[in-house]
From TrEMBL:
Self-association state and partner proteins as the record states: Homodimer.
Name under which the protein is recorded: Aspartate/tyrosine/aromatic aminotransferase
Record keyword Transferase present: yes
Organism of derivation: Paradevosia tibetensis
Family according to the record: Belongs to the class-I pyridoxal-phosphate-dependent aminotransferase family.
């Protein structure tokens, strides 16, 4: 059977994790894989999550199936968290999905069923799984300009000019907030322009919302998604609960469809349910029940929001410290952009050799494109890290 196959490409990020684990140096620093880490370097379970789990365990009576759309309370709570009252709920349908990746997968298949000839546009650069997933769904791919390697900010005029040329046969994948891998994001005014462009051209937005609450806060981070959804008749969102609830391995996310009207929403939803039915049938419940429990309870929700704010503020503080440390050591190097970026990542814009040198000489691990996970920066060694980064530029 398998003689007809060759090995599939290895996941570069997972391979780097293995290399880091095998590195015997005590002073090594892991800025690679995209999981949040606290000051002890641990991806801890949030206290609000543990409390929700205790309640669930104490009250659960059954493990029977939850249904193809998943946990109804979770779906309603996520709709409110992401969209608030942006659109009439009658036009919105949610399907609980196995992680943000699962949500993206079912949505891409839904869009492919609807428009197999469409071109799916990705930001340049984007999360390395987007292109393989879109290809797997069957789409033709293209990319729109996003990151300006010189300023390390969004090249907004170039992005907008590219979007303005699109039409109804195009699907645009947008990062709702906290762009991965660059950390460079649109301002609210720029989001308004993107939303107006999509409304004008008829290009269809597919919004990947994997880091809600990791940037500037739950409300500011939802701004772009809501601006787009409000401006256009139809859109879809892939929500992930992996990062903001720290539920990575529970595989919890949601596919959100906003349709033109109630009847179209029902059609799209029936197709989504059909896609789920023929792939994994029904989603796992535990992560969904945790999120439902937290979001439906005033006190637990406040506790979760406070924990999320602590994580977010820590990442912002580490950004400021690293850019200040680099500035203190070198007037020539401009790394202020690290403090401007938001979310878990920044793309440093270092060449491949520098990334390699940081790893071999300094034990500093980052993704090959020079993406760093700011949550991995050890707060007491920011100076060492700044020196190591500057050392590659000599
Ligand atoms: N989209 C982006 C941009 C991401 O960075 C990630 C996680 N790395 C995901 C989607 C999916 O996350 P998960 O499937 O773990 O929820």
């Amino acid at each position: 059977m398998f003689e007809t196959l060759t090995k599939a490409p290895a996941d570069k990020i997972l391979a780097l994790m293995g290399e880091f684990a095998a590195d015997p140096r005590k002073e090594k620093i892991d800025l690679g894989v995209g999981v949040y880490k606290d000051e002890a370097g641990v991806t801890a379970i949030m206290t609000s999550v543990t409390k929700a789990e205790q309640r669930i365990l104490a009250n659960a009576k059954t493990k029977t199936y939850v249904g193809i759309s998943g946990n109804k309370g979770f779906n309603a709570a996520v709709r409110e968290l992401v969209l608030a009252d942006t659109v009439d709920a009658k036009r919105v349908r949610l399907l609980q999905a196995p992680g943000g990746t699962g949500a993206l997968a079912v949505l891409m298949e839904l869009l492919y069923r609807a428009k197999p000839d469409a071109t799916l546009w990705l930001s340049n650069p984007t999360w390395p799984n987007h292109a393989p997933m879109a290809k797997h769904a069957g789409f033709k791919l293209d990319s729109y300009p996003y990151f300006d390697a010189k300023t390390r900010a969004v090249d907004f005029p170039a992005m907008l000019a590219a979007l303005d040329k699109l039409g109804p046969n195009d699907i645009v994948l947008l990062h709702g907030c906290c762009h991965n891998p660059t950390g460079a994001n649109l301002t609210p005014a720029q989001w308004d322009q993107v939303a107006a462009s999509l409304a004008r051209t008829g290009a269809f937005p597919l919004i990947d919302l994997a880091y809600l609450g990791f940037g500037d806060g739950l409300e500011p981070d939802a701004y772009g998604t809501r601006a787009v959804v409000k401006a256009v008749p139809e859109s879809v969102i892939a929500f992930s609960g992996s990062k903001n609830f720290g539920l990575y391995r529970e595989r919890i996310g949601a596919a959100i469809v906003i349709a033109r009207d109630e009847a179209q929403a029902d059609v799209a939803n029936s197709q989504l349910m059909n896609i789920a039915r023929v792939t994994y049938s029904q989603p796992p419940d535990h992560g969904a029940e945790i999120i439902r429990t937290i979001l439906e309870d005033k006190d637990l929700r406040a506790e979760w929001e406070a924990e999320l704010a602590t994580m977010r503020n820590r990442m912002i503080r580490l950004r400021e410290k690293l850019s200040e440390a680099i500035k203190a050591k070198s007037n020539a190097a401009d790394f202020d952009f690290i403090a401007e970026h938001r979310g878990m990542f920044s793309l440093l814009g270092l060449p491949g050799e520098a990334v390699e040198k940081l790893k071999t000489d300094g034990g500093v691990y980052m993704i090959g494109d020079s993406r760093i996970n700011v949550a991995g920066i050890p707060e007491d060694r920011v100076g060492d890290l700044a020196s190591a980064i500057l050392g590659t530029m000599k």
